[in-house]
Amino acid sequence: MAGFRDGPGCYLDGSLTGAAIGPGYSGGPLRVKSDRTVAGLVIAQVMSNQDPLRAQETVRRSWAVPWQTVRERLTRAGAHDILAQCEVVAPDHPACTGPAEDSVRQIVPLLRALLDDTARRADHCRHLAASLGLDAPSGVEQSAPTLDELATLLLTEERALATLTESLTPVAGGHSGDRTTLDNLLALGRVEPAVRLLSVTEYEQLHTALLKVAVDEPKLIPRAAQEALRLLELPEALTRSPLLAAEDVDAVVRALEEYPDGCGATTVSLPVPALLRLAEFVAAAVADPERRPWLRAWCDRVAKRLGISVAALEERRADAKAWAARVSAPVTRVIVRLHRAGATDPDRFLCEIWLGHKDGGRTAVATPVGPLEPGEIGRLIRQTADGSEDASGYAPTRVDIVVQAEGLDIPVDEWDAGNVLGELFPALAELHTPLGSRYQVSLRCPDLTGRVPTAASDMRRRWAAGGEGTLVVDESCHDIMSLHKLLDEPHRDTARVILHGPPERRQQFLHVCLAMGVPVVLWDRGAGSHKDAPRMDALDPTGPLDKLPRRLQEFRMSHAASASEGAARPALIWEEGELALPGPLRLADPS
User: Fold this and answer.
1) How far, in Å, CA of 281 to CA of 295, rounded?
2) Close Cβ partners of 178 (under 8 Å, ≥ 6 residues apart)
3) Fewest 10 Å CB contacts: which of 112, 223, 279, 510?
4) Which is nearest to 401 in space by CA: 302, 339, 335?
5) What are phi and psi of 19, to 5 degrees?
6) Three-class SS of residue 402?
């Protein structure tokens, strides 16, 4: 039926086949071809008495109110409860177009193999109708739809196929042929846009369980998702905050149902879907001991219905248990890797973040894709650190910034970390809180130390010597050859170097220090010459080495508060060999 808008209404021209719209249909729903979606309300037929034939025999023209007008009038009337139940879909949405004929033809033979017996089909379809909230006739013959009708229902009602296979699984398990047919039916469902992963019961059970977790432990689900699905782009509700609001649980479950299955198991088996992996990781770390076996039993039931082997699910369960044991160690630092976005946009950065645990483990943190402004990264670091506070109230105070050799001049410690009060009260939004005054910020540069085969062993030797002694590079050190001789002998075991001098020479000296395994290097980013060396005296740069990061934070805090002119802008490299940095990304099979 074709139509065109004219003000608040629209004209409809129907085909000359089938029944025409006539008297008595006014106010009836205007349905799309699939007969599942309402696109408006019919209000009149347009008749003309001047033609030899009646208008309905030549041009079947009618008058209707489209859904846009209906929505506008409902909004004006304040009927928001009705509007909340109405979903607007695109014309090519499966709800409008119905299933493809090829899809129906592929599924019918599978349904015939499983449900050719009319009484058996009627029994399963009554259960299906009850689960979906549909009416079904009471008689056996009347409640058994044709195989074509059943196939169409399975491909249009989003949870119908999963719900039917849920009732078929117990009886198909004892016959290998039925199980194979069931697997083929599920495989066809996975490529259909209108078919969802979970049955009605499975969805309701998981939604209820995760809702309780989100209320009691709002940090757990985002944290578990970051590890369980670390190679996938997570739904926005899991990345915008370290906490998951209860009202976002439904959106998260529905979004993850659409995710790819991910990496397969080492055994011959279907991969474990993303939603089951998340459920396993939540079960491994949930605080309530009664929820753990319940969630695992739920995963067992769904995996059995989907045809996923026990070994495949056990692999994911073992990963979850190992992660839960690791993340129980408190977070001691935030590790941030920065890359400049490019020569055309040098003031924006690509950012990756990990949480470093006390036992040496790391947990990846989901970060926005694409270049970010310094202020955005500063606020992201603060939110990550605040969100990793444990039950005892301890939050990490160390922030390691991993940069490439050309990024050692990035003033990350001066970037604004934002403040919670500023987010709540606009009048306080201008309060500037540098990262370096809120955390102990230091730099790490594996890009340089990794180029020299002996750098790692030299660093271990210098730390093993106890960190005694300091090399202060002043005017007497003329070039990199002089510095090399000093670090080779007599400062072969020195762990700390303080660099003074002009920026161009200081940059060369910095690279030599890292190449020779010096783990701690301190310099004034704002110094123009050796005459500026006294600016760092207030920092006590040669004082106790283990307290240096804390003294540096206090120095930055005091000078940020007073906004002192001519104050030093200290930068610190602090490399700890026993705290391994995240390695390069290793991509898995993109199945």
Assistant:
1) 10
2) 113, 114, 168, 171, 172
3) 112
4) 335
5) -80, 145
6) strand
Q: pLDDT of 22-63, one tens digit each?
A: 666 777 777 665 555 677 777 776 666 555 545 555 566 777
Residue 191: burial class (beta carbons within 10 Å; 0-12, 13-18, 19+): exposed
Report for 90-94, 283-287, 323-327, 345-349: range of highest mean pLDDT: 283-287
The answer to whether the beta carbons of residues 231 and 588 sit under 8 Å apart is yes
In angstroms, the first-to-last Cα distance of the chain is 42
pTM: 0.59
For 139, residues 6+ apart whose C-beta sits below 8 A from its C-beta are: none
Cα 291 → chain centroid = 24
pLDDT, one tens digit per residue, over 468-491 is 789 999 999 989 999 999 999 889
Q: Residue 427 — very low, low, confident or very high, per pLDDT cuts 50/70/90?
A: low
Q: Between β-strands 60-66 and 9-14, what pairing exists: parallel, antiparallel or unpaired?
A: antiparallel
| CA pair distance 422, 506, nearest whole angstrom | 38
* Of 428, 413, 449, the residue nearest 525 (C-alpha): 413
What is the spatial distance between Cα 104 and Cα 532, in angstroms, rounded to a whole number?
80
pLDDT at 478: 85
Residue type at 137 in one-letter notation:
P
How far is the C-alpha of 577 from the C-alpha of 519, rounded, in Å? 8
Q: How far is CA 190 from the centre of its chain?
A: 22
**Beta carbons of 198 and 275 less than 8 angstroms apart:** yes
One-letter identity of residue 188: L
